[in-house]
Each structure stands twice: as structure tokens, then as C-alpha cells.
């Protein structure tokens, strides 16, 4: 993102001093991942996304009540804050590409493994909470 900003600075969309807001966005980025890590520790289950077969609990409350992927959300938020700080349109591709890539390469396989591991409980959870942000409204 830094290279894109410096080599191809397409259209400044957030000029100084407003681009400093990016620091605030980056500052809140670790909140959801830290909360998720703490919840996993309390549930005594794995935080390793490459070892889901050892998961012993399906965590669905706390931060997991408003996002199914708080750790990836934290990374995306960090990238968004950095893009805001850089201020041009070029680095805005970073958070977008990250979310598309992580969803395809990591999240979908994780969801498949969790569905296999936790079955209907995981399906109900997916119906209640969005992949990225927000609980779903039920009629």
C-alpha cells in the first residue's frame, strides 16, 4: 500500500490533516482480535486457523456475537487505517484485496471445517451473525 501510494498516488481523497484519522482507525484495529483471543483462551479451544480439527468449543458470544471473523476484521481495519493515513486512492485497494483474498483462501475453508466439526450449531450461528460485521436481523 505504501509503494502504491508513493509510486502511483492516484487522487488524494483524504488530505492532511484529515488523514490523521487513519491513526485512530489503526488504534482500534487490535480490539476485536484481542477480545477473540481472550475468548478462545477462556473456552480452552484453539486459535490456530490451520488446526481447526482440534477445536473443542464453538465460541459465539462476546465479539463473536457481532462478527464471525474478528481476527481478520482487525487486520482489515488496520489496513483501512493505513490507507486512510496515506490519503490517496491507490492504497484503498489494499483492504479490498485483503478481504477478497482472505475470504477465498482462508475464511471459506475455515467455515467448511467448522461446519463439519460443529454441524447445525455452526449453521445456526452463521444465520445469526454476519461473516464480517453485524448481527443479522431476524423477523
What does it look like?
- By secondary structure, the protein is mostly helical.
- The chain has helices at 2-7, 21-28, 31-43, 70-86, 93-128.
Protein traits:
139 residues, mainly alpha
> How is the biggest beta sheet arranged?
none
Strand content: under 5%
Helical amount: 55-70%
Helix and strand content put the structural class at: mainly alpha
Distance between the termini: 41 Å
Oligomeric grouping of the chains: single chain
Tally of strands: 0
Given as residue ranges, the uncertain stretches (5+ residues, pLDDT < 50) are none
Could you give a short description of this structure?
The protein is mainly alpha-helical and 139 residues long. It has helices at 2-7, 21-28, 31-43, 70-86, 93-128.
Describe how the helices and strands are arranged.
Layout: H1 2-7, H2 21-28, H3 31-43, H4 70-86, H5 93-128
Helix pairs in contact: 2-4, 3-4, 4-5
Amino acid at each position: 500500500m505504501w509503494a502504491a501510494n508513493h509510486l502511483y498516488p492516484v487522487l488524494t481523497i483524504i488530505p492532511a490533516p484529515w488523514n490523521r484519522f487513519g491513526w485512530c482507525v489503526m488504534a482500534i484495529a487490535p480490539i476485536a482480535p484481542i477480545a477473540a483471543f481472550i475468548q478462545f483462551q477462556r473456552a480452552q479451544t484453539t486459535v490456530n486457523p490451520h488446526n481447526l480439527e482440534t477445536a473443542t468449543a464453538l465460541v459465539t458470544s462476546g465479539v463473536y456475537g457481532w462478527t464471525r471473523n474478528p481476527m481478520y476484521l482487525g487486520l482489515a481495519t488496520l489496513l483501512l487505517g493505513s490507507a486512510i493515513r496515506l490519503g490517496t486512492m491507490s492504497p484503498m485497494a489494499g483492504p479490498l484485496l485483503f478481504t477478497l483474498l482472505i475470504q477465498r483462501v482462508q475464511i471459506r475453508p475455515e467455515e467448511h471445517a467448522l461446519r463439519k466439526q460443529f454441524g447445525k450449531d455452526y449453521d445456526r450461528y452463521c444465520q445469526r451473525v454476519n461473516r464480517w460485521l453485524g448481527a443479522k436481523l431476524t423477523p
